[in-house]
Amino acid sequence: MNPVEPVPHAGAKRSRRRRWWLPLALLVLAVGLGGLSAYYFLGTSRTGVGAPNAAPTVPTATRTTIVTTPAFAPTTGPSGTQAPSTAPSTQAPPTTPGSASPSAGGSGPFRIDQFVYQLDILDQRSALKSGSVYADSLIRADTGRGYPVSVVICGLESPVCGRRDVSTPTPTVQPSGLPPALGPVSVGARIKAELVSGYEEVSVAGPQAASVQPIIEPTDSAKWRWFVYAHEPNTYTLTLSISVLQTDSDELLIPSQTFDITLIATTTTKDKIAQAGAAVATFLTTTVVGLITTVATLISTFGAVGNGVRRVWKRRRLAQAGTPLQPPPPPSI
Known about the structure:
single chain; 333 residues; alpha+beta; Immunoglobulin-like; 5-stranded antiparallel beta sheet; 5-stranded mixed beta sheet
């Protein structure tokens, strides 16, 4: 008698049939979690923050160096294999349309050249120092003669203009022959000085030295000299312009500073006498020439009138004597 085999339960058959897809579902879930982890890891390593598309914040007050290497730079791990770097990148944000400039506060497209230019200007301005300009604010000159105008610019510690303390507004030692102070100016760069007339009656020659001179250290100084010629007596206002230039160009680093210089042009007694003598000579010459011309005109007029009167009297005498008048002779051929 054969033993009776047990009949498997229907639920057991169904459970064995469903076991084949369980490992496949676990594999798909593991692959999905791994992909999400890799995507999040790559976004963090590129931007340095949790969000994949977040851009790094670039400070605007200090000058930074833009890194040209890629943000995702592989490094060598302990076992000699290449492992991705997780350090935050300092690379500048990409110059794509619509991205905001760090210095513009989010307005307008990003311009890396404009941003670098602004950083360079701020860096040069931070190196400027305080100084002073010395010149005569009121000058008196004779017409027709050149009057020298000297301008001196010094740092606060220059011995040419008198060494001074930072807390002292006036020099501790006043050098002799130094013009009075016009006001403070900025130094620490290339300085350009110009003296402008703006009048046709006043001409400016110079300067004798170079118009652009470096005043870098607080102990540096520079001097300019012009000659002013006034052709007519009057009161004029000249303009002294002081400009701070950039390092590698003649463009302004900061706005120019201007100072007014008053010029009073007068004539001397000698010049007045000479002008009076010239006027008298001109008057006499004109009067004598006019008088001679008038007398000559009168003599010519009276001569013509006298000839006419003589001919009339002659005809009357001949008519009274009964002498016929002789016809004038015919013209000779």
